[in-house]
Each structure stands twice: as C-alpha cells, then as structure tokens.
Amino acid sequence: MSQEQNRPLRVGLLGIGTVGSGTFTVLKRNQEEIRRRAGHGIEITMVADLNTERAREVVGDAAQVVADARQVIANPDIDVVVELIGGYGIAKALVLEAIAAGKHVVTANKALLAVHGTEIFAAAREKGVMVAFEAAVAGGIPIIKALREGLTANQIQWVAGIINGTTNFILSEMRDKGLDFDVVLKEAQRLGYAEADPTFDIEGVDAAHKATLMSAIAFGVPVQFDKAHVEGITKLSATDIKYAEQLGYRIKLLGIARRQEINGKVVGIELRTHPTLVPMRRLIANVEGAMNAVMVQGDAVGTTMYYGKGAGSEPTASAVVADLVDIARLLDVDPAARVPYLAFQPDALSKMPILPIDEVVTSFYLRLHVADEAGVLAKITGILAEQGISIDAVLQREADEVSGEGGNQTDLIILTHETKEGRMNTALAAMQALPTVLAPIVRVRKEELA
Question: Which domain holds residue 64?
C-alpha cells in the first residue's frame, strides 16, 4: 500500500478505553516529534467504540466516532487499524477482516496472538501488510523490538520475565506485609491493580500468553500457547515467601522460555509460567509492585534486562505509537524486506518441539510439614537419592515458630540441584506417602538466572 508524499498516516482505532485514550493523547501531545521521526504525520481519524459518548469525550472533533468497528475497516482512507478490544472472539474476526481489506494492523492483544498468531501472520504475509504488536508484551517496555531486531546477532539461550503486574504487586505485598494470598488479592482489587475477575492474571494465563510470543521470537518457532505449562500464584502462602527470604530468594511469577541442550545438542524448548524462587542478588528479584522486567540471555551479548511499566494508559500507548511510527517508516518498503513478524523468515521457522513439563530441567524448593522424629530426614533424602536428585540446602524450623502449633511437628525446607521434573514428581509421590509427612508437600521451582 503506497502512500502519497507527505500525507499523514491515517489510523482507525478499535476501542478507546484505557490504552486507546492514552494512544490518542500521546499522538496529539507529541505529534511534531513523531512526524520528525516517522517522516509522516500520524493521525487517528476514525474511532469505533460501543460507548460512542465516551469516545467523543476523548477525541472531540478530531476524529469520526462510530459504534460499528467494521465501518472503520471498510473506510478506504484508513491505512492502519489499531485493535484494542482484547479477547479471542470478535477481535480475531476484525483483525482478519482488516488484513483482508489490505490494512496494516497494530494490536496490544497478547491472548489473540498467542492462540491465533500463526493464522493471523500467514494472512498478513499473503496480503503484504504489517502486523505490529509491541504493546502485547510488557506494556511500554520495548522487549519485542529488542528480541526481533536488537539481539538478532545472538543465539538466544533463555528469556525469563515478570510480565504480569497484578501478580507481582500481590507477591510484593505478601512479602512486605506477611499476608496470605486471599487477603492481598482483595486489597489489590480495591486499589485497582486486580480486575473484579482476576483469573487470567492470578492463574498465570496472561503471563503465559506473553511468554508464548517471546518464545516464538527468541527461538524462531510458531506460537504454541496450547503447549505452554501454566501455573498461577493462588496456592502460594506467606510462609513459603518467608522461608524463601531466609534462604536468600524471592518468589516471582516468571514466564520462562529456554533452549534445552543435552551434550551440546538442542532437544527442545521449555515454555512455562509458574512461581519461581530467584536469588535476591539478581536485579529481577528486586522488581517490586506492578512493574515488569524481562531478562534475555544471548550467546554474544550475555545477559540483558529490560525494566519498566508493564501496563497503564500511556506506557502501553508508548508501544502502540512506536508501532505506528515503524509502519509509517516502512509503508513503501517491499514486504519481503521488512522485519519478519516473528524475527525469523517464515520459511525458516523451526519445528523444534515444546517440551512437556516432565522433561523440563530445573531445581526445586520443597517444604514438608513432618513429624519431629528421628530418621525422618534420612528417609526423605533417601527417596531423593533414589531419583538421582542432589540436595543444595536444608532448613529446619519448628512449626510453632510460624504457625503456633505444638512442638511435635516441624517444617523441613529443602533446596535441590537441577533435575528433570519427572524425577521430582516420582520422588514427591514417594515422600507424600510417608506416614511422617503430615500435609501436602509444597513444591516451587527455582531458577538461578545466571
């Protein structure tokens, strides 16, 4: 789609809620700076939102407001459609219709791309249009551009990120105040950090969507959310956060994508989201509140970290507008010469498998509530030894130090060295069957991120 010299890039906005209104505001405030960078003006000329009254309050007379998103897509004067509706349903239909109409697309919709990205990118490639999605991962942090462009000289070895602000806020509060999950969740909802229905956040789904996109770009594999291992933070207790602290660790919900090698040969990709013990000395362990951070390990550059606001009106709008600037710069470039959607050329995507969780290699934090009797520790360490699992550290605390219970029971905390998850599952089943193990064993994975 060629554009006449000096004509502004004309944008149609689908949804003008928090991010949409921020996008309009940032474009308006920084229009001269943006024009100097993009080589074209960028103007939102049409907005679709079911709440037309609210939309008009935001845009005034600067843009046409309609209730039907398809009117935006059908408008031949619109160059780019920005989808900020969210979800898998109507958003997917509208994005595919915009592509079919020859429009470029900018989206902040990580759920849509994590589940349907392969179909959407194929449709866009066929039409020769761009799909940009910097805002879909970590809000205002330019992690997609870093992975797609800045780190292209590297073989990426792993990516690990705090990529959900809601859960990071909850975990920070649990640690600071010694409160359990349910109490802090209610406070997070009252303060507006958590939705009325926080399921996608607290069960790890939102972070897993983002990890899926990062894994595809880092390793040149198709988006495969259905193969990701997903765990949230709902089962974490203040007790485990306290014990982790005593051992020199913080617990963070991490999205992790890692290239797994055995004897120098890559055997697959780990794609997982779960609570993780991280050494306090790592910068990422000290990311607090609703902030996001992503670490990337490359073979040439070593470790890099990207930190900032992962959500919010203008931080996310910053990423949306950056995508619009990229599109303005590349409008007249041959599609084959543009940066591929997933960084690797589409015919060079790898079939490297996403490994099942049993094949993942990591180390573990275990908390066993046991009878305080002679020989208990020996039986437990014996079971671990049978599975070839070596112990890094052991901490024993009387239960009444934490729970106020009697002195005939104790909490036994074990840190292990790396092992396959499947071996740990076998060991856990055997330990849980011991009559001296008095409660369900708590297991949290541990990553050194070295």
Answer: 9-139+314-342
- Residue 116 within a domain: yes
Looking at the fold, whether 296 and 149 belong to one and the same domain comes out as yes
C-beta atoms surrounding 242 within 10 Å: 16
State the pLDDT confidence band at 402, using cuts at 50, 70 and 90. Answer: very low
The span from the CA of 412 to the CA of 152, in Å, is 45
| 239-252 per-position pLDDT tens digit | 999 999 999 999 99
- Check if 210 is active-site: yes
- CATH code at 119? 3.40.50.720
**Structure-token pair, residue 216:** 């595809």
Laid out side by side, the sheet with 64-66 consists of 64-66, 42-48, 9-14, 80-83, 104-107, 131-132
Lookup: tokens for 422 = 């499947």
Transcribe 277-309 into DSSP letters: EEETTSGGGG--TTEEEEEEEETTTEEEEEEEE
* Residue-wise pLDDT tens digits, 343-352: 999 999 999 9
Determine which one of 145, 210, 309, 446 is catalytic: 210
Tell if the pTM clears 0.90, that is, is over it.
yes
Mean pLDDT over the full length of the chain:
94
90 domain-assigned? yes
- Contact status, residue 77 vs residue 10, Cβ threshold 8 Å: yes
Q: Are residues 35 and 133 in the same domain?
A: yes
Same domain, residue pair 436 and 397: yes
